[in-house]
TrEMBL record:
Pfam families: Isochorismatase. InterPro entries: Isochorismatase-like_dom, Isochorismatase-like_hydrls, Isochorismatase-like_sf. The keyword tRNA processing does not apply. Residues 7-169 form the Isochorismatase-like domain. One of its GO terms (molecular function) is hydrolase activity. Coiled coil: none annotated. It comes from Stenotrophomonas ginsengisoli. Keywords: Hydrolase. This is Isochorismatase-like domain-containing protein. CDD domains: cysteine_hydrolases. SUPFAM superfamilies: Isochorismatase-like hydrolases (SSF52499).
Amino acid sequence: MNAGPRCALLVIDLFSTFAFSGGPGLARRALQIAPNIAALRARFDQAHADVIHANDNFGHWQDDLDTLVGHCRKQGGAAAELARQLSPADHHLRRLKPRHSALHATPLPVLLEQRQIRHVVLAGLATDACILATAMEANMRGLHVWVPSDAVAARTDALHQAGLHILRHGLQIPTIASHSVQGLFPIQT
């Protein structure tokens, strides 16, 4: 058994066809942060810590995350490249979400409680929307949250900076770079 509260990495909304207003810009930015997310995820994997992929279901109530990733692979372009680089490994947990927050109307709060996870690191898309909503709800639930500024992105740099500003100043959530995870949160099994 672990010595204290555990930490999990929540990878949010990376898998998309980006077929919406501002989607192409978000796709470009997602590709820019993908190496940072991959490195962060590798550190969690190496520590045998939980990695949880939470993604919009886009109204497809009978699909699962693996089906969505497969669709992205067939889409080509940024969607396929993100699926190639960051598809969940077999041991990663997967959850679809119907709204902005990965914690709203999903089994994720129960999963975190049962696994004694008190610290969450959020990575993915979009800083000003789903990352912010998840961070706010996690904060309200008493979880310790960290959002690495170089592992999240938004449709524009201005929206990204605005989201980070609210996280830092409104919620007092650390937003230092992804390589700074050592010592910030306990990554343990």
